[in-house]
Amino acid sequence: MCGIVGYIGDKEASDVIIKGLKRLEYRGYDSAGIAIINGELHIKKGKGKVKNLESMIRGVASSHIGIGHTRWATHGEPNDINSHPHVSQSGKLALVHNGIIENYTSLKKKLESQGYTFYSETDTEIIAKLIESFLEKNPDDLRKSVQLALLQVTGTYGLAIIHSDFPDEIIVARKGSPLLLGVGENEMLIASDASAVAEYTDKVVYLDDGEIAVIRKSDYTVQSADEVELTKEVHELALSLEEIEKGGYDHFMMKEIFEQPRAISDCLRGRLNVEEGEITLGGIDKVMDQLINANRVVIAACGTSWHSGLVGEYLFESLAKMPVEVEYASEFRYKEQLIGEGDVMIVISQSGETADTLAALREARERGALVLGVVNVVGSTIARETDGGVYIHAGPEIGVASTKAFTAQVTVLALIAIKVAQMRGKLDKERSKALIKELSHIPQKIQEILDQSDKIKNIADLFTYAPNFLYLGRSYSFPVALEGALKLKEISYAHAEGYPAAEMKHGPIALIDDMMPVVVIAATQHTNDKMVSNIEEVRARKGRIIAITTPGNEEVAELAEFTLTVPETMDELSPLLTVIPLQLLSYYIAVNRGCNVDQPRNLAKSVTVE
User: Fold this and answer.
1) Left, alpha or beta for 432 (phi > 0: left; psi -120 to 50: alpha)?
2) Mean pLDDT in runs of 10 for the chain (610 residues)?
3) pTM for the full model?
4) Which of 251, 406, 487, 496 has the fewest C-beta atoms under 10 angstroms from its C-beta?
5) What are the chain's domains?
6) DSSP string for 263-280
């Protein structure tokens, strides 16, 4: 969501910060701001895009230290005053903040009683004034003042703080909102996302909850909440500039759709032995006995990751014969907790920082469950806090609407399900070898679908301004229907709903007429007869049928007005193929409607607050 960038070194700070903020634009934001020190504090901020900020900061004094921010509004509407950075009463301290301060109302009343004045509607301004109130008592120790102030704060935060009386240091603190340090030569960077520092260094330090760091040009120190100095591991950042550029595509989303053959190949690399029918998953080897003997598996995720979790449920139950529940992570912590020892929770998150998913993870671990992660970002909080897991290795996903992360997540879930099924003796060797061999062919089959993108665009052109869409699927295709509808809603702002095909008769059928496009996913053999019946029902009510099916499925092709084919595959792996035309359909409709595909309104890439 909100983005933080900070710099201290020999370069022009504003140039580095502005470039870093541009790298974070994909996360979603409504305003941007920057603070630099050159003798005194200089702040420029306002509603709108980073390019506006770039012109505002031009001509302001040169500086080698500063912090910047892109804001996604929580407390207070998007406007110039509510934009970050926020300043202290003296105007000497500035800070940027990701997260939510839950007790800001009581803190504000206390500070107002002490004579402090507030100008914004944000919870963040309270932190700036609170730190200054402690600095008055500790005038030589900015870090100590930050620590004392944060002891009074309830909520989540990623903070970067500068003060004109301390022009050689930046203070950063983390609790529940990601922050990392980029370690360079005679320079240090701060960011909420590695993409902002990748141009300058491949060495990063990930802060953990409760830690406070003092950043100087040539060194840094990190302390725990109880003031114990920590030695932090320096990680090598596996991220190239090429991966976070558009590479000739009009949008990151299109690039990432077309990267899926490569992404899944990377996901499978080193994990498949096709000849022997074996799968190697080093990240969960040490906990495999607990997994295969689990009482049940609970999958927790949000958004697109929740849809991949639904596919995972079908895979585990069908192949491994294990009971599985899929939970919205945002709801899990508020339910009666019936999870504990003997249970396994699998949490899925592209970023590895999703706040609700992290909360579910911690709740499950506290109650004694084994927790495994399926994440994309190496070194992310979920990756560090789980008992084991499997990276999806999809590469950076910049577009807000997830595409390659979904297919890579499903690929990993298929790998885990097949491995568990083999070890539980629920999958015979011939069947498991067939699944593994077919998985190895999926990248090429996705490429075959991408090669017919022009046909998908032609259909999108016909339905660009349809106000409503219905997506139908059964079994493995039901989560794909949900995902297809979500993609269309996210980036084109058209209303769309995904339904189990049989549930159409329990309400949605009332909506079908000759103005309603109905996207039917009919590419699994074991549900084909029932899907044909559902298509007949839509056709009888003059619905405009767009079918996703296989080349030899004449029954479906004859009934549909439009047909998009995907190569034959095994039913269990069909979501990896059937979702691709739906991603492209959504993309082309959104482009036709003039929508901002990579940064849809009101959405953020990584939801790091509740």
Assistant:
1) alpha
2) 90 93 79 92 90 84 92 80 93 93 92 93 93 93 94 93 96 92 94 89 92 95 90 83 74 94 94 93 94 95 96 96 95 86 96 91 94 91 93 89 96 97 93 95 97 94 92 93 96 92 77 84 84 80 88 87 94 96 97 90 62
3) 0.78
4) 251
5) 3-243 (3.60.20.10), 246-450 (3.40.50.10490), 452-610 (3.40.50.10490)
6) HHHHHHTTTEETTTTEE-
